[in-house]
Write a structure and sequence with these properties.
extended; two-stranded antiparallel ribbon; 29% helix; 25% strand; 129 residues
Length: 129
């Protein structure tokens, strides 16, 4: 962790309770926080669990992630049942490592057309000729 700027507090709640200055402490950079937030959405939880499972180990370990959710019911009131939803539950493979590396480490090569780009004379986003 690194210590950033220090702010002197002039008035209000903090000085009244014995705090005269506040120090900014930064651990992880803002880009890491944004990536973690992006992987927090339900659609990417399986990718997140694969990344966490494969961090520092070989393929073959089990990636498991479950989340609780409120069970759907036709009634508006009453007690609701919390059920467990499995996001991912399987053994990781070498193909997972290859795919994750290709997605996150070599994105530029995945979006290029190679040496000869296709002809797209009408500028159609689907790439018709």
């Amino acid at each position: 962790m690194t210590v950033g700027a220090t702010a002197t507090v002039k008035g209000g709640f903090w000085p009244a309770n014995g705090v005269g200055s506040l120090t900014q402490v930064s651990g992880k950079g803002p880009s890491r926080r944004k990536i973690a937030q992006a992987f927090g959405i339900k659609g990417l939880l399986d990718q997140r669990e694969l990344l966490e499972t494969l961090d520092g180990v070989v393929a073959g370990s089990t990636a498991l992630s479950t989340r609780g959710r409120v069970q759907a019911a036709e009634e508006l009131g009453g007690k609701r049942i919390i059920e467990q939803e499995t996001i991912i539950n399987r053994a990781t493979t070498a193909a997972d490592v290859t795919e994750l590396n290709a997605d996150f480490l070599t994105l530029a090569t995945r979006t290029s057309f190679g040496a000869t780009p296709p002809i797209n004379k009408d500028l159609n986003p689907l790439g018709t000729r």
